[in-house]
Write a structure and sequence with these properties.
The protein has two domains: 3-207, Alpha-Beta Complex (Spore Coat Polysaccharide Biosynthesis Protein SpsA, Chain A), CATH 3.90.550.10; 219-323, no CATH class. It contains 14 helices and eleven strands. It has helices at residues 20-31, 51-61, 76-86, 105-112, 137-140, 170-173, 182-193, 219-223, 233-247, 255-270, 275-283, 285-288, 299-307, 310-323, and strands spanning 3-4, 7-8, 10-16, 38-44, 65-69, 91-95, 100-101, 118-126, 132-136, 164-166, 196-207.
């Protein structure tokens, strides 16, 4: 390990693209970390604003900042892949350009990592203007700790901005598939290789944008009253593709279960409904839906809705489209 005073070097992988509006605040929270053994790997993905100039100004004042500029735009996921590959630390922390870190974030994560493959934490939501939205990640999701990858087959509770993981995981998680969220994949692989844990403290102010693709706060449903995820055909197909990606991981702890789960899930694509799938998720509900905030009294109705296949969803989607 790279150590000074028995503290491992932590690499912060910062991906930047047209982030001038929030980048200065984020950089201040990075260089102000109470943990001293850090390097900041900033990779700019062909920004057309003042992002690079901001990075260069900071790098002149803070030697721990190293700047890399892409020759062509790689996109969000592949830019993170490149940033991770450039990291030299024993531990790697992922960083978005528009959040705000608690100054003790790295120090606390290093202290709590223990024998886990990955450590993450709770986060506080802020709006685009930086105002507190009075909600935390743990208000929306059950945060998972343990060593069962099945918890990440359907729902992710590990946000990229909160992740710190051991360098050894890089060989397992790379290359990243551009169609899937990198944090979801890292969590899935980490629980296959060992265990993960979380710190219940909010260590990041997580900025929410109206155009975000993750929709953690379910804004799409609030804005579009006709939207319902159980009639979202595209979502169902995307989930199947993700499950097949999980199955492709060569070191799955329980390949037989994953394979069986994928086969039953795929039956939903060709069927009106699948009783066998409903029975399976009912039997393993506690782990498959651990990360979802759901009252126990709603479980039976939820399982019933998951039973319906793509053909039924397509019919419902067409009917509701005509009504609207």
């Amino acid at each position: 390990m790279s150590k000074e005073n028995n503290n491992p070097l932590v690499s912060i992988a910062l991906c930047v693209y047209n982030g001038e509006r929030f980048l200065t605040e984020q950089l201040d929270s990075l260089v102000g970390q109470t943990y001293s053994q850090i390097e900041i790997i900033a990779v700019d993905d062909c920004s057309t604003d003042a992002s690079v100039k901001i990075l260069e100004d900071y790098s002149k004042r803070f030697e721990q900042i190293k700047i890399y500029k892409n020759d062509q735009n790689l996109g969000y996921v592949k830019n993170f892949e490149k940033a991770m590959q450039l990291c030299t630390g024993d531990l790697i922390a992922l960083c978005d350009q528009d959040d705000l870190w608690d100054l003790n974030k790295i120090n606390l994560q290093v202290a709590h990592l223990a024998d886990n493959q990955l450590i993450y934490h709770d986060s506080r939501f802020i709006d685009e203007q930086g105002q507190d939205m009075h909600r935390k990640m743990s208000d929306v999701l059950h945060l998972y700790k343990g060593n069962q990858p099945e918890a990440f087959l359907l729902i992710n509770s590990v946000s990229g901005h909160s992740i710190m993981f051991r360098r050894e995981l890089l060989a397992e998680i790379l290359p990243l598939h551009p169609d899937f969220f990198h944090d979801h994949w890292i969590a899935y692989v980490a629980t296959n290789r060992g265990s993960i844990d979380f710190i219940p403290q909010c260590l990041v102010n997580y900025r929410q944008h109206t155009s975000t693709s993750t929709d953690i706060l379910n804004t799409r449903k609030k804005l579009d009253k006709t939207y319902h995820e159980n009639r979202d055909v595209t979502k169902l197909k995307r989930e199947l593709k993700w499950l097949k990606h999980c199955l492709s991981y060569e070191k799955n702890k329980d390949r037989a279960f994953i394979n069986h789960f994928v086969k039953l899930f795929e039956q939903r694509i060709t069927s009106l409904f699948s009783f066998r799938y409903a029975i399976l998720i009912g039997k393993h509900f506690d782990i498959l839906y651990h990360n979802k905030k759901l009252h126990k009294s709603s479980r039976i109705g939820f399982i019933y809705r998951q039973m319906w296949g793509l053909k039924a969803k397509t019919i419902w989607a067409d009917l509701f489209a005509k009504k609207s």
